[in-house]
Design brief:
Blueprint lengths: L3 E3 L19 E7 L5 E9 L9 E2 L6 E6 H7 L4 H4 L6 E4 L8 E4 L11 E5 L2 E2 L5 E2 L2 E2 L10 E8 L13 E7 L7 E9 L4 E12 L2 E12 L10 E14 L2 E14 L5 E2 L17 E6 L4 E6 L4 E16 L3 E13 L2 E12 L9 E4 L5 E3 L3 E26 L3 E20 L2 E5 L7 E2 L2 H4 L8 E21 L4 E20 L7 E21 L2 E12 L3 H6 L1 H5 L6 E13 L3 E18 L6 E18 L4 E16 L14 E13 L2 E12 L2 E2 L6 E3 L2 E12 L3 E8 L7 E3 L9 E4 L4 E9 L1
Parallel strand pairs: 1-42, 8-13
Antiparallel strand pairs: 2-3, 3-4, 5-12, 6-7, 8-9, 10-11, 12-13, 14-15, 14-47, 15-16, 16-17, 17-18, 18-22, 19-46, 20-21, 22-23, 23-27, 24-27, 25-26, 25-30, 27-28, 27-29, 28-31, 31-32, 32-33, 33-34, 34-35, 35-36, 36-37, 37-38, 38-39, 39-40, 40-43, 41-42, 43-44, 44-47, 45-46
Length: 756
C-alpha cells in the first residue's frame, strides 16, 4: 500500500496547568462501606437516558455518561458547540470548520463527515429529529451561552430505545431555571481576533411557585481566521418559564438564534499556508455563479458562511400521582433556515502558467493586478446551499414505581421537513493566499461551463417517525439490578428531488419501514459508591432524505437502507470524596452504513467493527489541586467493503488523552484558579483506503480566573498555546490532493463579568 503522509510542524510536548471543577449536581454524603466504616463520596445526578425521564445517580447507572457543569463548560472555552464534545470520552470531534458544520464521531462508528451518530437535545428533546442531513448536523442548531446550566452526554447504553433512538451519542443541554432569589450576570468578552461579545442572564420569581430565566448574547468578529470583515456574527435570546406544582412541574422555553460564521475548509498544504489561512476574504466574498440548464446567473455573499437563523420552542410537564405513578411529556418545535455558503477547494494547487490562456499571466478580477505565471492558484468551488427546516417532536412516558420494579411505557413521535436548494461546483481559479481573488484570462473562470463539475438540486422532503417503547427495571437484591427495554419504530419519508434545476423530478421516494431496537443491562452495586455493569443493545440509524437520494438505486431494488448497530458494554464505577473513576469497555458492529465523497459521487456500503475502552477519572486534593484524565483507546476495522475490507475506519484516532489539572488559590480579597488542558491525539487515516495518514498531535490550552466576593470576575483563556498546526482531515473530495484542514490557531480571549 502506498501511503501519503501529510506532515505538520515538529511535535512540541508541553506541561500544562489545567482544571477540573467539582462534578455537576454533586451532594456529599456519609455512607458506610462494606466493612461499616464511614466514607465520604460524591453523588452525580444524570437526567438523560432513562425511559421514565427521571434522574439517576451516575454511580448507579448501567451505562456510560459524562456531565459537564456550567463552570466546566466556561473553562473549556469552546469555540463552537461541537468543540465542547471533545471533553466526552469515546468521542472524536472535528470542530475546525468554524462555528457550524462540525464532524463528530463516536466509539469507532463509521462516517465520512457531519455527525450521523450524534443527537443534540435541549431540555430532553432533540433539536431536530434527523441527526444529520447534508450540510446540517445537530450541533449547528445550538449555541452555548450563559443560559446553559449543564450538559449530559450519553454514549451507547439505552440510547437505542429512548428518545429518538440514537444508538451513538446523545448530548442533552439543560437551561437554567429561576428561583425565589433574583440574580443574574452580565459579561463582556474580547479577543486577539477582535471578538466583541456581550452576554447576559437574569432569573427570579414572577409569582408564588412561578419562575423565569431570560438571557442571551450578541457578538461579532472577523473570525478566528481573519477574513478581513466580520465573518462571524449573531445573537441569541432565550426565555425559560417554570411553574412548580404540588405534584410536579411545568416548563416552557423558547430560544431564538441568528448566528453564522465563515465555513473553514481544507487548504493547500504549500509554503506560505498555515493554520491562519482561509479562502474567504474581502476580494472574493461576493461572486456570481451560474446554475440550471439555461446558465442562470445570480450573485451571492459567501460571507454568510454556515449558521442557523431560527427558533426552538418547547417545554415539559412532569406530574407525580399516588401509588408510584409518574407522567412526563416533553415537546419541542423547531423552525428556521440552516444555510451554507462556502469556498470549497477542488483538486491540486498549480502554477498559473499551466492554466492561463496566454500561458504566462492572468489578471485579478477585482484589483486588476497582473499575476505572474509562477503564482500558485487553485480551483475554488462557490457552493450555495439553502435549507429550510421544520419539526415538531413529542416524547411522552408513564412510569409505575414499586419497591422492586420501575416499569415505563412511552410514545415518541416526530414530524420533520427539509426544503433544499443547492448549486454546488461553480469552479474558478483563485490566487492561493488568504482571501485570494478570482482571476480573468483563464477559460475556466471566464466560461464556467468549461471546467469542473456542477451538482444542482431543488428538493422537498417530509418525514414522520413514531415509536412505542417500554422499559422494565427490577431490583433482584440490594446489590443486583437489571433492566430491559424495547422500541418499535415506524419511519416514513416522502421525498422528491429535481436534479438539474430544470423542473423535472428525477427521483421520488415513498419510504415506509419499521424496526425494533432493544437493550438489556445488569448492574452490581458492590457498595453505594462502587459498582460494575454489563449491557447489550441493538439499534439502528434510519434513512433520511439524502440517504434516499444517494441510494436511490438500492431503494428501487427494495433494500430497507436501515443501518444496524449492535453494542456490548462493560463498565466499572467508583465515586469517592476526593477521586472518582469511570471505565467502560465497548464493542460495536455497524452494518450497512454508506460513504460518499461528495454529492453525486458513487456510494460505498460498509460494515465496521470497533472495540476499545473509555476512561473518565478525577482526583481532588485538599490543597486546591485537582486533575481529570479523559482517555479513549480503540481499534476499528472495516469488515465488509467492495474495496477497503480489513482497513481501519477513516478519520478516527486509535487513542486520545486529555489531562486537565487546575489549582485554586486566594489572592488577598480575591480567589481564583489557574487551569488548562493538554490534549494528545494519535495518527489517523484520512480515507477508508488508508492511503493518507494524518499525524497525531499535542495541543495545550491555558487559562486563569480571578473572582471577588463582590461578584466581579476576570478570565483569560489561551487556546493552542504552541500554535500547533496539525490537521483534522485531508481532502474528502480528492483524497490524494495535498489539501488539509488545520486545527484552529492560537487564540487569546479575555472576559470581565459581574454577577449580582
Amino acid at each position: 500500500m502506498n501511503t501519503v503522509k501529510f506532515s505538520r510542524s515538529a511535535m512540541s510536548l508541553a506541561v500544562s496547568m489545567a482544571f477540573i471543577m467539582p462534578l455537576q449536581t454533586m451532594a456529599q454524603e456519609q455512607t458506610p462501606d462494606s466493612e461499616g466504616e464511614e466514607r465520604d463520596f460524591f453523588e452525580q445526578i444524570l437526567v438523560t437516558g432513562t425511559a421514565s425521564g427521571t434522574s439517576v445517580r451516575k454511580v448507579d447507572a448501567s451505562y456510560a455518561s459524562t456531565s459537564l457543569s456550567e463552570e466546566q463548560i466556561k473553562r473549556l472555552a469552546p469555540k463552537s458547540t461541537a468543540d465542547l464534545f471533545k471533553a466526552v470520552p469515546g468521542v472524536w470531534a472535528e470542530s475546525s470548520g468554524g462555528v457550524s458544520g462540525a464532524n463528530v464521531f463516536v466509539r469507532g462508528f463509521p462516517g465520512g463527515g457531519d455527525a450521523p451518530f450524534l443527537t443534540v437535545q435541549l431540555q430532553g428533546v432533540p433539536v431536530f429529529p434527523p441527526p444529520t442531513l447534508s450540510f446540517l448536523e445537530n450541533s449547528t442548531l445550538f449555541r452555548i451561552d450563559e443560559t446553559v446550566d449543564f450538559m449530559d452526554a450519553l454514549r451507547g447504553g439505552p440510547n437505542s430505545v429512548v428518545s429518538s433512538g440514537q444508538p451513538g451519542l446523545t448530548t442533552n443541554f439543560l437551561l437554567k431555571e429561576g428561583s425565589d432569589v433574583t440574580e443574574g450576570s452580565i459579561k463582556y468578552s474580547t479577543s486577539d481576533y477582535n471578538l466583541q461579545r456581550i452576554d447576559g442572564v437574569l432569573s427570579g420569581m414572577i409569582d408564588d411557585d412561578l419562575y423565569f430565566m431570560v438571557g442571551g448574547y450578541v457578538q461579532q468578529s472577523p473570525g478566528i481566521r481573519d477574513a478581513g470583515f466580520n465573518s462571524e456574527k449573531g445573537q441569541q435570546f432565550t426565555v425559560n418559564i417554570t411553574k412548580e406544582l404540588e405534584n410536579g412541574k411545568i416548563n416552557l422555553f423558547t430560544r431564538i438564534t441568528d448566528d453564522h460564521g465563515a465555513w473553514y475548509l481544507p487548504t493547500p498544504l504549500v509554503e506560505g499556508v498555515d493554520n491562519s489561512y482561509t479562502q474567504l476574504g474581502t476580494l472574493n466574498r461576493q461572486a456570481t455563479v451560474q446554475y440550471g440548464p439555461d446558465g442562470t446567473s445570480e450573485s451571492f455573499d459567501f460571507g454568510e458562511g454556515r449558521g442557523w437563523d431560527g427558533s426552538i420552542s418547547g417545554g415539559s410537564i412532569t406530574l407525580e400521582f399516588g401509588d408510584g405513578w409518574t407522567f412526563v411529556d416533553r415537546f419541542a418545535y423547531t423552525s428556521g433556515d440552516a444555510d451554507t455558503l462556502g469556498l470549497v477547494p477542488n483538486g491540486d494547487p498549480v502554477a498559473l502558467s499551466t492554466v492561463a490562456d496566454n500561458g504566462q499571466s492572468a489578471t485579478g478580477a477585482v484589483t486588476g493586478n497582473t499575476y505572474a505565471g509562477s503564482t500558485l492558484v487553485q480551483q475554488i468551488g462557490r457552493w450555495v446551499v439553502r435549507k429550510d427546516i421544520e419539526s415538531f417532536t413529542n416524547d411522552l412516558a408513564i412510569t409505575k414505581t414499586t419497591e422492586k420494579i420501575k416499569a415505563s411505557v412511552g410514545l415518541y413521535s416526530a414530524n420533520f421537513s427539509s426544503d433544499d436548494w443547492w448549486t454546488l461546483g461553480n469552479h474558478a481559479y483563485h490566487v492561493i493566499q488568504s482571501g485570494g481573488e478570482n482571476l480573468t484570462g483563464i477559460d475556466c473562470n471566464d466560461n464556467q461551463d468549461s471546467c469542473g463539475w456542477n451538482y444542482d438540486i431543488n428538493s422537498t422532503g417530509d418525514g414522520t417517525t413514531t415509536a412505542f417503547y417500554a422499559a422494565l427495571e427490577y431490583q433482584f437484591t440490594d446489590q443486583l439490578s437489571g433492566d430491559i427495554g424495547v422500541r418499535n419504530e415506524n419511519h416514513e419519508i416522502e421525498y422528491t428531488v429535481d436534479e438539474g434545476l430544470d423542473g423535472v423530478i428525477t427521483k421520488a421516494a415513498q419510504y415506509d419501514e419499521s424496526d425494533v431496537a432493544l437493550t438489556a443491562g445488569l448492574n452490581w452495586q458492590l457498595r453505594k459508591d462502587m459498582g460494575v455493569f454489563v449491557r447489550y443493545s441493538e439499534g439502528s440509524k434510519m434513512p433520511y432524505f439524502d440517504d434516499l437520494r444517494d441510494n436511490f438505486g438500492r431503494f428501487e431494488a427494495g433494500e430497507d437502507l436501515i443501518v444496524d448497530v449492535t453494542q456490548l458494554e462493560f463498565g466499572y464505577k467508583l465515586a469517592k470524596s476526593n477521586y472518582n473513576v469511570y471505565a467502560t469497555g465497548f464493542f460495536n458492529e455497524v452494518e450497512g452504513d454508506t460513504f460518499q465523497a461528495q454529492p453525486g459521487a458513487p456510494v460505498q456500503v460498509l460494515t465496521n467493527e470497533a472495540y476499545g475502552i473509555e476512561l473518565d477519572a478525577a482526583y481532588f486534593a485538599d490543597n486546591g489541586f485537582s486533575i481529570n484524565v479523559n482517555a479513549t483507546i480503540q481499534e476499528t476495522e472495516i469488515t465488509e467493503s467492495p474495496e477497503n475490507e480489513g482497513n481501519e475506519a477513516q478519520r478516527q484516532p486509535g487513542w486520545q488523552l486529555r489531562l486537565t489539572p487546575s489549582y485554586d488559590f486566594e489572592l488577598g480579597d480575591y480567589y481564583g484558579s489557574v487551569y488548562g488542558t493538554l490534549a494528545m491525539v494519535d495518527d489517523r487515516f484520512s480515507d477508508n483506503a488508508n492511503s493518507v495518514v494524518l499525524d497525531g498531535y499535542e495541543k495545550v490550552d491555558l487559562g486563569v480566573v480571578i473572582r471577588s466576593d463582590a461578584g466581579l470576575s476576570f478570565e483569560l483563556a489561551v487556546q493552542n498555546v504552541t500554535d500547533e498546526d496539525a490537521l483534522t482531515e485531508g481532502d474528502p473530495r480528492s483524497v490524494n490532493s495535498p489539501n488539509g484542514r488545520f486545527i484552529l490557531p492560537r487564540t487569546a480571549t479575555f472576559s470581565v463579568s459581574y454577577q449580582f
